[in-house]
Amino acid sequence: MKAIQQIPKKIRQALKAELKQGEKIKWLGSPIPAGYALRAVPLTILGIIITVFFIFWMGNAVDFKVPDLSDAFALFSLIFLLFGIPGLFLGIALLGSPIWLFTKADLIAYVITDQWAIILDGTLGEVRIRSFYPHHFEKNTLKAKGDGSGDLIFAEETPPAQSSGNVFSALQAIVQGPGFYAIANVRDARRRLDPLLKKKKKGPAQCLDEGDGECNDAVTDTMNWKPLNTSSSNFDPYKLSIPTKRLLTYKTTLGVKAFCGLFMAVGIGCLSYVGPRQHGRWIPESFVEEGLAQLVSLLFLLAGASLLYFLSSPRLFDGKNNIFRKGRGKRQKIISFSEIYALQLIPHSVSNSDGPDYTNYQLNIILNNGQRENVVNYHNQKNAQSDAKTIAEFIGKKVFFSPD
Fold it and tell me: Do residues 94 and 52 lie in contact, with contact meaning Cβ atoms separated by under 8 Å?
């Protein structure tokens, strides 16, 4: 365990400001730089692949020679080359990720107090603070080495379910998911969490549809208030629509459709360029010069189409047949309104590795047998509560909301 004087001054000042009056530090530590840097190995491998690909991409765009700018087609090839520069920079950045993590380790502090766990990160100038209540690390995972060092991962917040909604954040989550990483004597840190888990208490549930007052009953006292393992984002991907008086349905927002369409447009455009426009044929003669580029273009197209298909999967409340329906085909779930006890709205903190943390609001169905089924997740609290009340009124049930 570190002494508070051993951490950088700005981290120490931020920690003192974060502690409540009478709150005591039970454990304090920082990542071991060399061990923390090893977490970037997957990103380094990915960086090698991306860098090599975009070197071939850019070289192939100009046939590995200086383009003649007097030729209109050569000018188009140069523009296509420029599109590869961001990808090349990304690959180089990933190659240098071990160095970044090595230097970052000294500017991170892990803290366990008598009330919660805290991560302080001062790598970007201003100190970023993430606080975790006991329910965030109730199902923690310990990975220890022979020398006693290791990782203590907070399972309830583990990526990729909680990510900021973009690819680079998901990659960063590999090395920056919530938890204490590369710390000395990891078992001691885990022992310090046990007292917090033993005294963990649930806050009162509120009824959104009954004056927003407390509505604890025998069910809410035993109800599971931990978020289900679903995807999260820092925007609302769905919007509740009321096409008829007997139907409520969720539809993907215009932003989601545009995002998926962008992937598809890039795939179609690139596939067209490296196909008949550049070489006069669809079937490649050289895998390196043509086939690999066509394959990546096709992957972009399929990724956009698959994502749109997945996100547009039906989620509706059918008042005519009194059922909730979610999904398609064999994965489709149908729940009768008579099987539903209530709706549950849970706020939960989401760790964002390349920006501020944010809160999602998970709307679930609580069945009569106590099991739960996720309906949708929100980023906007006002939209979440408004839609939850609308659905509750439509199906004739209560909405339980946990303010904690």
Answer: no
For residue 129, give the 3-state DSSP assignment. Answer: strand
What is the SS3 assignment for 240? strand
Q: How far is 286 from 215, CA to CA, in rounded Å? A: 68
Tokens read off for 242: 């009321």
Q: Which helix (H) or strand (E) holds 359?
A: strand 358-367
pLDDT in tens, 218-275: 565 567 778 888 877 788 889 999 888 889 999 998 888 988 998 888 888 777 766 5
pLDDT digits (tens, 9 = 90+) for 88-143: 998 999 999 899 889 888 899 999 998 888 988 887 778 888 777 776 777 788 88
| Secondary structure (DSSP) of 251-273 | EE-HHHHHHHHHHHHHHHHHHHI
Give the whole-angstrom CA distance, residue 105 versus residue 32.
Answer: 7
The DSSP code for 47 is: H
Q: What residue type is 369 in one-letter code?
A: N
Q: Is this prediction's pTM over 0.90? A: no
Domains, the chain: 1-201 (no CATH), 206-246+319-401 (2.30.29), 255-301 (no CATH)
